[in-house]
């Protein structure tokens, strides 16, 4: 059995631990052979393949990033794309199955390759934002929350020194899990997430009540948050110099608005890709390793179109279809719980 592994979409601490878990499980338990596709689906489409022997994965679980590299290439687009060409490339290289490690886009493509092309693919969920449905948590999220929490702790001491308001922007394009968890862990005075638009007046109400108690306000905001009363020119940030939609920038917008309305000197900090870099936490290493091992077992069972997933503390399998098409958003009850502590 020869298995090809790919990592696709935005990177995430724990990707290398999945690769190591898969290779070790496959080599030790199933006499499998492994190759890696470089640069995500691009490596599949272009036949950019490297051997992944056991010695290649030594010590990999503690290493950030992905040794296979990643891209946002769609396997249905561009020259060489599409199920027929991909199957031909797999046959030419004697590859029996693909383990695709990725988020919503990657898994949607994986499902289509199974459904439309009969290609042997098993999925592993990957999202730092924790926004994938059908898995309780995804690796990378815990690491990102740790990094964001440490940043909030550090920003608090400088905020206190100067009596300033700090607005900290964390990742989360569509959902606010990183903001919710890091904000709770760091004792933020308000947590602003995409699922819960809020007015600038309400935010300033929290800021002023913190100031009135003689404290320096700390606000955590997810990059996809929108003000209910956001003016049109601020609601869409347009395209960057490479014609890509601009992401984030909400903290930069909020800090001066808060200062203008409350008179409290305010600063913004955007954590950005720091949240995706460096070594995974111990929790993420364990979760990623278990998912990698389970993915190889799924290949052995020919569970094509299925994804390995975390259910409670167990690793289970679900149809990739269940994991795609709708996001894992922050439930109202979790936000209400956090909101008790605002202000
Ligand atoms: O989806 C993961 C994520 O990290 C988002 O939180 C963020 O908006 C986006 O990727 C950044 O993408 P890129 O690495 O392409 O700038």
Automatic annotation (TrEMBL):
The domain of life for this entry's organism is Bacteria
* GO MF annotation terms: 6-phosphofructokinase activity; AMP binding; ATP binding; diphosphate-fructose-6-phosphate 1-phosphotransferase activity; fructose-6-phosphate binding; identical protein binding; metal ion binding; monosaccharide binding
Record site feature (Important for substrate specificity), residues: 105
- Give the GO biological process terms: canonical glycolysis; fructose 1,6-bisphosphate metabolic process; fructose 6-phosphate metabolic process
Q: Where in the cell is it found?
A: Cytoplasm
Q: Which GO terms describe its cellular component?
A: 6-phosphofructokinase complex
Class of this enzyme: transferase
Pathway per its UniProt entry is: Carbohydrate degradation; glycolysis; D-glyceraldehyde 3-phosphate and glycerone phosphate from D-glucose: step 3/4
Positions binding substrate in this chain are: 127-129, 164, 171-173, 223, 267, 273-276
Name the InterPro entries for this protein: ATP_PFK, ATP_PFK_prok-type, Phosphofructokinase_CS, Phosphofructokinase_dom, Phosphofructokinase_III, PKF_sf
Q: Which residues bind Mg(2+)?
A: 104
**What cofactor does this protein call for?**
Mg(2+)
Q: What keywords would UniProt list here? A: ATP-binding, Cytoplasm, Glycolysis, Kinase, Magnesium, Metal-binding, Nucleotide-binding, Transferase
Q: Per UniProt, where does ATP bind? A: 10, 72-73, 103-106
Substrates-to-products reaction catalysed: beta-D-fructose 6-phosphate + ATP = beta-D-fructose 1,6-bisphosphate + ADP + H(+)
Q: Where is the Phosphofructokinase domain?
A: 2-299
**Residues at the active site:** 129 (proton acceptor)
Question: EC number(s) per UniProt?
Answer: 2.7.1.11
Q: Which HAMAP family match?
A: Phosphofructokinase_III (MF_01976)
Annotated family: Belongs to the phosphofructokinase type A (PFKA) family. Mixed-substrate PFK group III subfamily.
Q: In UniProt terms, what function does this protein have? A: Catalyzes the phosphorylation of D-fructose 6-phosphate to fructose 1,6-bisphosphate by ATP, the first committing step of glycolysis.
According to UniProt, the name of this protein is: ATP-dependent 6-phosphofructokinase
Give the organism, scientific name. Answer: Orlajensenia flava
Q: What is the lineage of its organism?
A: Bacteria, Bacillati, Actinomycetota, Actinomycetes, Micrococcales
Encoding gene (name) = pfkA
């Amino acid at each position: 059995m020869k298995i090809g592994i790919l990592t696709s979409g935005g990177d995430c601490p724990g990707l290398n631990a999945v690769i190591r878990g898969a290779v070790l499980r496959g080599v030790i338990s199933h006499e499998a052979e492994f190759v890696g596709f470089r640069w995500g689906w691009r490596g599949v489409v272009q036949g950019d393949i490297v051997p992944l022997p056991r010695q290649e994965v030594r010590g990999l679980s503690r290493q950030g990033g992905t040794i296979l590299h990643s891209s946002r290439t769609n396997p249905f687009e561009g020259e060489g794309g599409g199920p027929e060409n991909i199957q031909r490339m797999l046959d030419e290289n004697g590859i029996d199955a693909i383990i695709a490690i990725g988020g919503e886009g990657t898994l949607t493509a994986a499902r289509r390759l199974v459904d439309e092309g009969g290609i042997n693919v098993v999925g592993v969920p990957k999202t730092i934002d924790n926004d994938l449905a059908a898995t309780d948590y995804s690796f990378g999220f815990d690491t990102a929350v740790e990094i964001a929490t440490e940043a909030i702790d550090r920003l608090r001491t400088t905020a206190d020194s100067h009596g300033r308001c700090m607005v900290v922007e964390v990742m989360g394009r569509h959902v606010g899990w990183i903001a919710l968890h890091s904000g709770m862990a760091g004792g933020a005075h308000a947590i602003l997430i995409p699922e819960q638009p809020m007015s600038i007046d309400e935010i300033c109400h929290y800021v002023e009540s913190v100031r009135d108690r003689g404290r320096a306000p700390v606000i955590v905001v997810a990059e996809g948050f929108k003000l209910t009363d956001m003016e049109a020119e601020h609601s869409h940030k347009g395209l960057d110099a490479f014609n890509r939609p601009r992401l984030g920038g909400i903290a930069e917008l909020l800090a001066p608005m808060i200062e203008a309305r409350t008179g409290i000197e305010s600063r913004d900090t955007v954590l950005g890709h720091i949240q995706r870099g460096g070594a995974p936490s111990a929790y993420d290493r364990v979760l990623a390793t278990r998912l990698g091992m389970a993915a190889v077992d799924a290949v052995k069972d020919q569970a094509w179109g299925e994804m390995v997933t975390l259910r409670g503390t167990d690793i289970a399998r679900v149809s990739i279809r269940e994991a795609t098409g709708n996001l894992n958003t922050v439930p109202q009850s979790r936000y209400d719980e956090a909101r008790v502590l605002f202000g």
